[in-house]
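Collaborator request log, item 7. Partner lab (contact: R.S.) asked for a structural prediction of ATP-binding protein to inform their binding assays.
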Amino acid sequence: MTSIILGQGRDGSDTCIDLPELLATRLLVQGNSGSGKSHLLRRLLEQTATLVQQVMIDPEGDFVTLADHYGHLVIDVEDQSEASLRAAGERVRAHRASVVLNLEQVEAEMQLRAAGAFLNGMFEAPRAHWYPVLVVVDEAQLFAPVAGGDTSDEARRLSLGAMTNLMCRGRKRGLAGVIATQRLAKLAKNVAAEASNFLMGRTFLDIDMARAADLLGMERRAAESFRDLARGQFMALGPALSRRPKLVTIGPVTTASHATGPVLLPLEPVSAEDLRDIILEPVHEFTPRPRRESRPPPPDLLAQLDAYGAEREAEEPAPAAVVVEADPDQLWSLVAEVVAGEGSDYKPLATLYQDFQLRARIQGLSRNVLELGPFHRMLATIRAGLDRARADSEDWKQAQAIAATLPEDVQGVFLLLARTALDGETCPGDEALARAYGTHSLGRARRQLNYLEEREVIVLQETPLGRRVAIVGLGWQTV
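Returned to partner:
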């Protein structure tokens, strides 16, 4: 068993924490400001620095000094994007680097986004890099809040989702969460509930004491004892700590935070008149520079070029382009060539229309010889299996009129059903419907039949011999 000494118990004996058990069961630390949470986390990080990879989410920059003694990499997020932080999270796992994510220099919104992106990058690392990592999050209520604050909903969702993944699903990926919070009431319950080890420090609010007592399995009356804990004293419980609630006093640490606590300093004797002169010293206001005379804006170069081009065209008119008038048979032939192209069933309509325009220009036709709407209907008609002569029949014009009332993406499916019903053929199979809809998903194609029936343009009947479709208003039916 690999254990580290966390501190001393009530009788002076060493209180140890089982590191492998901690990696499997996670830890929650709670205590009001000044209870010694940062000291506890520093003790835990120092004792395990040489035993396991560590990642510290540090919102106040208290733990950057670990880099001087233990070689941690400090990542300042003020110069990093969310994409780079996500990638950094993956690389940290690949190279097994111990890092401190310093969030001190950014506002609350960016703190949530940065922590969420970094933790998600660690969570999404490939399976080959799922080495054990001790992930310590200080002030966890900032990253997994119960209610919204001044930050955006998107940032809160990103951070809360990452914290939930860390505590709920991180164990199988080797991520062992250690979260510390000032108030349990402000921490999301689904995040706190996943911890099996607890270190509860000094707490004064009744709601926090009651919740801490519930987590430790103590009676409500015993919760009053949390008010009597001294700085650096915690009640420990969990499979990695103790099977029964146990008082532990955290041991000393080697490193220290850059930030120091409040220290009483005597006031220097200064007379009120001197203070008045210092505090109310007039501020010198600079005289603004006189404005320069406004100059006309420089001429617009592009406007000059356009005007010059217009003058040249007026002086030397370009020869009129020879445009060949297209007949319907020629347009039909061009669209049929587009339909016959490789993979045309699954290409976007815009790509097919561009292909048609290119073929039309090669034949000497205008780019707009056939607008997009008529092109789409002719395309669907050809895909449905009609020839040129039947496409101009009155029956088919009625079918096209009904198709014009439908969204463009399902018009091809309806025209295919209409053509098979008109010819009295069997209903098209799922693969034919998928090609008409432009998808490889057979299930998605089948759902279009239900949609067309809801639009009351077809009547769908499932029989033991197969599917049968009737076109509403036209009386055509498949066999």
